[in-house]
Amino acid sequence: MSQTLPPSAYPVSPIINALRRDASRVLVEMVDGESWTAGRILDAISRYAQALTARGVGVGTRVALLARNSVEVLVLHNATGFAGAGLVALHPMGSADDHIFAIEDGQVDALIYDPKKFGERAAELQRRTNRLKTILSLGKGDVGENLFEEIKKYTPGPLVAPQLPSNAVTRLSYSGGTTGKPKAIPGNARVGATALAIMLQEWEWPINPRVLAVVPLSHAGGSLFAPVVLKHGTMVVMAGFEPGAVLKAIQDYKITCTMLVPTMIYALLDHPDFDKYDLSSLETIFYGASLMSPARLKEGIERIGPVFFQFYGQAEAPMTVTTMRRSEHDPNNPLRMQSCGRPVPWVDVALLDNDNNLVKDGDPGEICVRGPLVMDGYLDREELNKETFAGGWLHTGDVAVKDPDGFFRIVDRKKDMIVSGGFNVFPSEVENVIAGHPAVAQVSVFGTPDEKWGEAVTAAVVLRPGAKVDGAELSALVKEHKGPVQAPKHVHFIDAIPQTAVGKPDKKALRKQFA
Questions:
Q1: Which of 49, 114, 169, 325 could form a disulfide with 86 if both were Cys (CB 3.0 to 4.6 A apart)?
Q2: What is the pLDDT, as a whole number, of residue 70?
Q3: pLDDT in tens, 234-281
Q4: Assigned fold of 192-414
Q5: DSSP states of 306-340 as a string?
Q6: For 499, which DSSP code?
Q7: Alpha-carbon gap, residue 263 to 97, rounded angstroms
Q8: Residues of the chain with pLDDT under 70
Q9: Where does the chain hold its CATH 3.30.300.30 domain(s)?
Q10: Topology, domain 35-164
């Protein structure tokens, strides 16, 4: 039976207490925009929470948010919490079908949207679903009430966290959906508090950090806000990612840390004006979400410095299962550069075979996790939960090997493994070889149907500007380093690797394109 949490145990409570203690400090700066003090943000949270409550948003309801990066996104993360509602973040890069699915599957009651960017999408969602009882716009929009005008009716007041059961859904996230329909992943106070504690203790933060937020604040980027508040830092917010603008912001705002996905790092390194900017203020680049090419990571260290900190997790065990610290990145150790680090002390991690037995060190096994960071289970997916939690462990779907020093090296997703001619081929190992060629900017390897081999190893390659190489040379390179089985049978040169909404290479789309 679930217990009722005291207000102090609610994830937003320590954030509010910290804002009160340091109200005059500038906390958020919009790039080329205005600055917000902690006190102003605190007042806004109160106004928004009151406005939401007046419109029936409260305990047991769910609110979808569709907006580009802004201070209001950070405010609403907290305001929905104080209203007692669960937040359902709609990814800014998601399709209308993705958004409709999340609204209906997640039983969403209200939608808040940015009319400057998503006015047409909001109107489409209103037409296509009857779930939404309330629609609110962040400014003047053609659909719903103007929330900016509504909050003016309320006077900021004390914020007290609602009384909620310990298992109440505070946030509903959706998986990337690369293998079918997305899965709803409920978050609660325990998971949120554990994720925050790990980030505060295990991540390498600069003193009084100046954090550049470019990844979506409605998703992973929003997780940076609480540590910034609690570590007396400042968050500099960009509406979206554009490599030249990011380089300029790092220089102009003296940024000390940021969070990027690997494809963003590649875009920065490949920008023609990269060397014109002063990035010397950077102390830490947090990176994760997908595997990073060891060759590009080594290049990043050589050109930016030893600032890279890797975190590995997934929405089911959010943000941090393992970390690899800045000092643990060894450019002269190829296997280390392929590592995702070592487990943090807050979770139990094991590599298991298909029968849930521990594998020997050096043998591949599925990363399995248990502990307070792990979700309770997918929403309304009983059969899937039995499979996902077989043996009492969360089965991540990631296959890794552990070295004698305890570092995990992910060799691939179980579902992405290619079976070619009866042999198992892990795409990431092929990708690492191809990415080492000086002409290659990005690569994604996947299997395509083949009458002879069952599956043919296939590579989609993006070349660096002005570079040339043919497919036969890349295939021969893999054959030399990994053997003939792993060598791609097909190499396709494309302009860009398609991405899922959460910034991962979309191998499902590539398989469909080249099948």
A1: 169
A2: 94
A3: 999 999 899 999 999 999 999 999 999 888 999 999 999 999 999 999
A4: Rossmann fold (3.40.50)
A5: S-EEEEEEETTEEEEEEEE-GGG--TT-HHHHT--
A6: B
A7: 25
A8: 1-11, 176-180, 421-422, 501-503
A9: 417-514
A10: Rossmann fold (3.40.50)
